[in-house]
Amino acid sequence: MGKSNSDIVQSLQHLNMAKQHFESFIRDFPGTNGARMFKRYVDKVDWIFNDLLTNPQFSREVTNGIMEEVNSDAYAVVALSEKMSLLPPDKREAMEDILDTLLSGAELTIENKNTNENETVQQNLA
Hints:
This protein has 126 residues and is mostly helical. The protein has 2 domains: 3-76; 87-125, no CATH class. The protein contains 5 helices and 2 strands. The chain has helices at 3-28, 33-54, 60-70, 76-86, 89-103, and strands at residues 108-114, 119-125. The protein has a two-stranded antiparallel ribbon. A hairpin with a 4-residue loop joins strand 1 (108-114) and strand 2 (119-125). Helix 1 (3-28) runs antiparallel to helix 2. The chain is flat. It starts with a helix and ends with a strand.
């Protein structure tokens, strides 16, 4: 994925997070001036999403990608980043290699050996 694609994905994630924060405020403080103001902002974010999804210049593949991103967990990337920061440098490098492999489209098999129960769990990621 190129930088421009990454910028667009991050923009959608941030818009989605902002929308969720506005909606949380509206639920927590219904009927307030802030709730009314944030409702207008939610409507504007929805307009942006709708405009992107109905833009005739985008292919079906692009609009499907946008829809997938809009419907995804906006906080997953933040959670991954927070978890990555807790790893020692060598483990972060290993995780980066794993992500690069996934992004390249190659199949990745992860084997987790649980020494407490002598059980092996294998998961294929494609």
